[in-house]
What we know:
Blueprint: H1 11-23, E1 26-27, H2 28-39, H3 43-55, E2 59-64, E3 67-72, H4 76-89, H5 93-106, H6 111-125
Antiparallel strand pairs: 1-3, 2-3
Helix pairs in contact: 1-3, 2-3
Amino acid sequence: MNTEIDSKITDSEWEVMRVVWAQNNVTSKEIREVLQQKMDWKPATTKTFIGRLVKKGMLHTETEGNKYIYSANINENEYIKSTLDDIFENICNKDVGNTIVDLISKATLSFKDIEKMERALEMKKKSAVEEVPCNCVPGQCKCNDHNCSSGH
């Protein structure tokens, strides 16, 4: 793929991408039908978001007769991981653990999910540190104002 991808997308564009990821190859009509049910969008609204995603390089377009077929230029799991990486890169290292705990506490999880997390945590214990060092420059977080050993 030679297209430069602008992976910053809006909540509405996420809705379109979820349809494309779920269906792999999809027409604008199929996208419109799904989002008409969920979002009650007019066809022009959906077309606008599709156009933006094509321009951002998130969607690939092929023509088949008089129809456009859309597919994703980026895998859903890769995109979600990349988005989370961006979030964690932009917060204090000391906040990462609390943020993960918050995500877990808000999520609906299966027993299988919890087992996977427990295994991952057991592995993480092998490389755990006594205290996570702050990675911010002074003035970007409260670590310099307060002793952060108790968290932010």
